[in-house]
Specification:
Length: 522
């Protein structure tokens, strides 16, 4: 009778029995094993201890993890209840064997297996120091990446930290370096894209220190990668390989590369102009770094690269989007704030929630899918970057509002004004200027006198503020009165524009006249 074989994961403490949403890290690993290592779906499922359906779904979604895809979830094992006891015993006696500890926890009620316990103890014991030796990798197999802090750079009113991204191909020692003003994830990914373009391809694996932009956390051998970085790795089909903690020798090639950049390029060079520094660094890579005889290989990186380049993986057809993306609220002044600076948007988008996408050179702003503004990115601080075209509509609206208010005030003087306004409009005059001067006459001479002057000018078809003003002066002169002096409030000039309702003084004439007739004191 044929014996049934147990699934590969049984007896190991955890196995996939529940299905949940797929993580980016699992999706990227499945794609790499299929595309690069050419493993079958069954082999991938066995290696990662996942269901074959999970592998099929990941491979059917080349642009990112499928929303309905699944990943394995671990089930707690029986030994987890004794984790605290085992930790205390190993802290006190690190050399205790699994057999000895098995006997101890049996007495405490443990009824699980020996294999489960042994695997659990591997995660608890401190790893012993390991001897290492230099190993030459195969062409196209490995690259190493790291950051270097190289000083500060003055840009306008701001002092920025200057960093140098370095990638070294492990076989040929071909080097790429790039100066940046930050080490954020988006700049880190953009530097990778530039490096792959420089080399004309991608290595199968890349060695990193435990950077937060790559590794979010690690517990023993379990590593949790940054989700967005793993999405990028899945798009370019390379495997991130973090170094062991406190094991800098594992990325010695890039460490040597950074030391070489510091000593050969940066030493004695003033950090003044970022554009000039980037141009000089590119020339140094081409004319010095990649054509010198390397101290270890005793060959020029450029010559060894001729062997390595054909073995690099090709880049994707569409470059990865490395922009910083964030949602921001526009102010009532039609400005959005990004990293201490404010950028203008068209006035129609004031007080709205907008999307900002920033690259190293540009800041682009969107209202949903609509592109509404573009600016050169500013690396100073507390600056306002404006596009005059964004305010053209506001100025037009304000001008229109002022004109409407002026006409409204003129028509409010009296019923004759509507007919006179038509005459002003057809006389090809600067309507706004003439209305302002007529309203000024109404403030200086009074409403009734101004209306009488308008009626007189209307009678003779004389349209214009100059006619009104002359009629008012002539009538004053005929009565032996001088022209009134306008009241100007020098400290509050805007108060001079306030219109005060004209009071009928005949009331006082009647009041005082009646008092005199009755013999009262005037």
């Amino acid at each position: 009778m044929r014996r049934k074989t147990k699934p590969a994961w049984r007896g190991r403490g955890t196995w996939p029995i529940i299905l949940v949403d797929m993580e980016t890290q699992l999706w990227a690993t499945i794609r790499r094993l299929s595309e690069i290592e050419k493993l079958s779906k069954s082999a991938i499922a066995a290696r990662l201890r996942v269901h074959r359906q999970t592998v099929r779904r990941a491979l059917a979604s080349p642009l990112g993890p499928p929303a309905d895809a699944r990943k394995p979830v671990t089930v707690p094992s029986k030994v987890d209840n004794y984790d605290g006891y085992l930790r205390r015993r190993l802290d006190e006696y690190p050399e205790l064997s699994a057999v000895k500890l098995m006997a101890e926890i049996r007495r405490l009620g443990y009824d699980g297996g020996y294999t489960i316990l042994k695997e659990h103890l591997r995660t608890l014991r401190p790893e012993k120091p390991k001897a290492f030796m230099r190993i030459e990798t195969q062409p196209g197999e490995f690259a190493q990446v790291d950051w270097a802090n190289v000083g500060t750079l003055r840009i306008g009113n701001a002092t920025r930290k200057l960093s140098c991204f370095v990638m070294v191909l492990s076989y040929s020692r071909m080097m790429y370096a790039e100066l940046t003003l930050s080490q954020c994830l988006e700049d880190f990914i953009a530097a990778h894209v530039n490096a792959f373009r420089f080399f004309g391809g991608v290595t199968k694996k890349i060695n990193y220190d435990n950077l937060k932009t790559v590794v979010l956390s690690r517990v023993g051998r379990e590593i949790r990668f940054h989700e967005k970085f793993m999405d990028f790795a899945g798009a370019y089909l390379f495997e991130p390989v973090p170094c062991t903690v406190r094991a800098a020798w594992e990325k010695g090639k890039v460490e040597s590369g950074i030391k070489y950049v510091r000593g050969s390029f940066l030493a004695g060079r003033p950090l003044l102009d970022l554009v000039a520094l980037r141009r000089e660094l590119a020339a140094w890579l081409e004319g010095t770094a990649n054509v010198r005889v390397h101290g270890t290989t005793r060959e020029r990186p450029q010559d060894r690269f001729l062997i390595e380049k054909p073995l690099l993986q090709s880049e994707p057809d569409v470059p990865y989007d490395c922009a910083i993306v964030c949602s921001l609220g526009a102010t009532s002044q039609a400005l959005v704030q990004f990293q201490t600076n404010r950028y203008s948007v068209p006035h129609a988008h004031a007080d709205k929630t907008l999307t900002l996408k920033a690259t190293g050179q540009t800041v682009m702003i969107y209202d949903g899918a609509q592109h509404v503004a573009a600016h050169a990115r500013c690396y100073e601080k507390y600056q306002v970057i404006e596009d005059p075209a964004h305010y053209a509509g506001i100025l037009a609206q304000r001008k229109k509002a002022r004109s409407a208010k002026r006409v409204e005030q003129f028509l409010a003087l009296g019923p004759l004004c509507a007919q006179y306004l038509k005459g002003l409009s057809t006389a090809e005059l600067n309507l706004a200027a003439h209305l302002d001067k007529i309203l000024e006459c109404a403030r200086d001479f009074g409403r009734e006198e101004t209306l009488a002057a308008i009626a007189r000018a209307q009678q003779f078809g004389a349209f214009g503020s100059a006619y009104i003003h002359n009629i008012l002066l002539q009538r004053r002169a005929a009565r032996g009165q001088s022209a009134p002096r306008p009241v100007v409030l020098s400290k509050k000039p805007s108060w001079s524009e306030i219109a005060v309702e004209e009071t009928d003084l005949s009331l006082y004439d009647e009041l005082f006249g009646n008092a005199k007739d009755k013999g009262g004191d005037a």
